[in-house]
Amino acid sequence: MNNCTNNKTPAAWFTPSQQKGSVMKIKTARHSGFTLVEIMIVVAIIGLLAAIAIPNFVKARTTAYRSACINNLRQIDSAVQEWALETKQGEAQQVIYENIKPYLKNEVVCPAGGHTFSDSYSLATVSDKPLCKIKPTDTDPLKAHALPVDTAN
Ligand SMILES: [Zn+2]
């Protein structure tokens, strides 16, 4: 009886142990991580997405800066006109920041690198439009921080 069970036990052990061995082999292959080609494909896809996205972020930020700056220029121009009306200034009258400060609700600076009014904007006369000192002109007029030219009258 004992011999019989002893003989059967190895036979029963033999097959599962072989299966165990093959399972172990697959497991070790999976545990070895990603292959070089897999990692390279993932890195290439991430790089491609970054190459598409980053110029768009930069462009969106530049456009936002320009819009904010032109909005500031409009506020400054309105303040100049308001000051000229209230104090009865002529069109050729020189204007400085101290004159229009009470007409601005907050200090306006160019978002593309300005820190104070004086390093962001320049004023001349009442009839002149205020100018941005950070980016007053550009080869592409759609990128310059400048008020559009008057078309009325
Ligand atoms: Zn500007």
For the biggest sheet, the summary is: 2 strands, antiparallel
Low-confidence stretches: none
Strand content: under 5%
Q: What best-fitting shape do the alpha-carbon axes yield?
A: elongated
Number of helices: 4
Rg calc? 37 Å
Strand sequence of the main sheet, in spatial order? 1-2
Pick out its properties.
mainly alpha; 3% strand; single chain; 153 residues; binds zinc ion
How does this model look, in words?
With 153 residues, the protein is mostly helical. It has a domain at 43-146. The protein has 4 helices and 2 strands, in the order ααααββ. A two-stranded antiparallel sheet has the order 1-2. A hairpin with an 8-residue loop joins strand 1 and strand 2. The chain is elongated and about 85 Å long. The model has no long low-confidence stretch (mean pLDDT 85). Zinc ion binds at residues 69, 110, 112, 132, 134-135, 145.
Write a brief structural summary.
The protein is an all-alpha fold and 153 residues long. The chain has 4 helices and 2 strands.
Compile the SSE list and pairings.
Layout: H1 2-31, H2 36-86, H3 97-100, H4 117-120, E1 121-122, E2 131-132
Antiparallel strand pairs: 1-2
Bound molecules: zinc ion.
